[in-house]
Amino acid sequence: MENNIKAELESFLKVLPPVDFCCVYGAALLPNNRDKSKMVDYILGVSNPLEWHAQNLKLNRDHYASWMVHLGGARLITEVADRIGVGVHFNPYVIWSNKMYKYGVVRMDDLVRDVLYWESFYLSGRLQKPVRILVDNLDLENVNSVNLRAAVSAALLLLPMKFSEEDLYAKICSLSYMGDLRMLFAEDRNKVQKIIGGQFDLFKSMYKPFLEEYEAKEFLTSSSSQNHKENISQDCSLQVTQTLVSYLPPTVKRRMGLNLGEKKHVSKS
Q1: What are phi and psi of 101, to 5 degrees?
Q2: Residue 158's Cα: distance from chain center in Å?
Q3: Alpha helices in 15-64 (DSSP H)
Q4: Using an 8 Å Cβ cutoff, are 170 and 196 in contact?
Q5: Dihedral sign from CA coordinates of 83, 71, 47, 90
Q6: What spatial distance separates the first Cα and last Cα of the chain, rounded to whole Å?
Q7: Is 140 left (phi over 0), alpha (psi -120 to 50) or beta?
Q8: Secondary structure in 3-state letters for 208-257
Q9: CA 59 to chain CA centroid, nearest Å
Q10: Which pLDDT tens digit goes with each residue over 43-58?
Q11: pTM for this one?
Q12: Which residue of 101, 114, 213, 226 has the lowest C-beta tally within 10 Å?
């Protein structure tokens, strides 16, 4: 069954030019998902988006908005992605083999930079949630461990001394939605709870190594509840807090320093 699902997800890649990285996310990962009408979502990492889109336009011109094809082709598609779309171009509502697909194309350098430094926090936020990796020529899964450690650390810094395992995953999931106006208007405000509820076991397997490491370092202590979910207590001492902050990306630490400087300036004035 597992191999059949993987083969089915990989089959769509056969109609596209080669990629260096591919992952599937969203409803396609839900256990026992049999709703074939739901869109299957892909992130594709490529070395040169301009060349990739030029090849894809020859193969799959109908995947693109017609105005982009006619006004500028691959160059316009790439420029719009770089200037407006945080480096990602999406082709949604693609029908192939009686199923609907959406795929986002990103330059590998931009993807790695966002994973390590949270520059746009768009794809790094996506990769903090469960995904199924289908292609990984540059071992991005290993690089993403830096992103996952940073996500756990950020969530712990935002949580109280005692919380549940579900609270932790909800906080990690919500990191990428903080300040996102879509959560106020266009999107379901219960989206985080729905994601966690449907993918709890996937979150658990993703973050288990980091929780075990932090528990071994005595940053955390945990106890099992009746439903096999953990109740967690964390050490909120200055030393542990400093260690957790050290795991955050440089971009975040710089912003924290700037905000701290502004608060000190306000308090002195």
Answers
A1: -130, 155
A2: 19
A3: 49-60
A4: yes
A5: positive
A6: 65
A7: alpha
A8: HHHHHHHHHCCCEEEEECCCCCEEEEECCCHHHHHHHHHCCCHHHHHHHH
A9: 28
A10: 999 999 999 999 999 9
A11: 0.88
A12: 226
Q: Provide the strand spans (E) within the chain.
A: 21-25, 40-46, 88-96, 99-107, 132-136, 162-164, 220-224, 230-234
Q: Which of 148-152, 205-209, 261-265 has the lowest mean pLDDT?
A: 261-265
Task: For residue range 147-191, list pLDDT tens digits in order.
Answer: 999 999 999 999 999 999 999 999 999 998 764 444 444 455 577
Q: Phi and psi (nearest 5°) for 122?
A: -95, -60
Residue 138 DSSP code: T
- The answer to whether 96 and 15 have CB atoms below 8 angstroms apart is yes
Q: Tell me the C-alpha distance between 112 and 211, whole Å.
A: 24
The answer to whether 49 and 81 are in contact (CB under 8 A) is yes
Neighbours of 212 (CB within 10 A): 12
Residue recorded with tokens 């996952």: 148
